[in-house]
């Protein structure tokens, strides 16, 4: 396996994997668009200096992804910036092998090298498997987003 920084040449593969993330999260949010739903501006994340996108390859196939983006923190917080983690994906045949941890550790290492020591990510409240995985890495629940649908 080979962990590397994503390039613009990876965009088509990454867009395909982004759709796998969308489909995996669809059961948790009935408001995700039926068609053409996207989460990330991958070309920007790859090219900007405040972010890094990583891919893990096995035999020239991307099997895991993730990104970190250094973002300004809310004015009320004691830290001026934080690392936001997203696009955390491992192909189904490769899950349960610690690959998400490998990618996240590398991303957080990049963040620490850029002066960041606080990290956030979003996860659906009903996605208990993902919550458990992130808690094993030391993440704790911080803020719950509430939603109300009015007819």
Give your account of this protein's structure.
The structure is a single chain. The protein is an alpha+beta fold and 151 residues long. It has one domain: Gcn5-related N-acetyltransferase (GNAT) (Aminopeptidase, 3-Layer(aba) Sandwich). Helices cover 30% and strands 25% of the residues. A 5-stranded mixed β-sheet has the order 1-2-3-4-5, sandwiched between helices. Residues 1-151 form the N-acetyltransferase domain. This is GNAT family N-acetyltransferase. InterPro entries: Acyl_CoA_acyltransferase (IPR016181), Bact_Acetyltransf (IPR050832), GNAT_dom (IPR000182). Keywords: Acyltransferase, Transferase.
Q: Helices, strands, pairings?
A:
Layout: E1 2-5, H1 11-25, H2 42-47, E2 51-58, E3 61-72, E4 81-90, H3 99-113, E5 119-121, H4 128-136
Parallel strand pairs: 4-5
Antiparallel strand pairs: 1-2, 2-3, 3-4
Condensed summary:
The chain is α+β, with helices and mostly antiparallel strands and 151 residues long.
Tell me, briefly, the overall form. Answer: globular
Helix content: 25-40%
- Rg (C-alpha, Å): 16 Å
Report the total helices: 4
CATH domain fold name:
Aminopeptidase
The assigned CATH architecture is 3-Layer(aba) Sandwich
> Care to count the β-strands?
5
Which sequence of strands runs across the widest sheet? Answer: 1-2-3-4-5
CATH C-level class:
Alpha Beta
Q: In percent terms, what proportion of residues is strand?
A: 15-25%
Order of helices and strands: EHHEEEHEH
Low-pLDDT residue intervals, each spanning 5 or more residues: none
Q: Quote the distance from N terminus to C terminus.
A: 50 Å
How many domains? 1
Summed over residues and divided by their number, the pLDDT gives a mean of: 96
Oligomer: single chain
Largest sheet: 5 strands, mixed
């Amino acid at each position: 396996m080979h962990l590397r920084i994503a390039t613009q040449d990876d965009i088509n593969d990454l867009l395909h994997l982004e759709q796998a993330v969308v489909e995996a999260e669809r059961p948790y949010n009935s408001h995700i668009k039926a068609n053409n739903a996207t989460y990330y501006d991958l070309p920007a994340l790859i090219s900007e200096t405040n972010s890094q996108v990583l891919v893990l390859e096995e035999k020239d196939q991307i099997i895991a992804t993730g990104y970190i983006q250094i973002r300004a923190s809310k004015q009320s917080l004691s830290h001026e910036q934080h690392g936001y983690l997203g696009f955390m994906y491992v192909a189904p045949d490769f899950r349960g092998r610690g690959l998400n941890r490998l990618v996240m550790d590398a991303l957080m290492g990049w963040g620490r090298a850029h002066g960041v020591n606080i990290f956030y990510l979003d996860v659906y409240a009903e996605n208990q498997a993902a919550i458990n995985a992130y808690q094993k890495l030391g993440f704790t629940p911080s803020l719950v987003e509430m939603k109300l649908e009015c007819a």
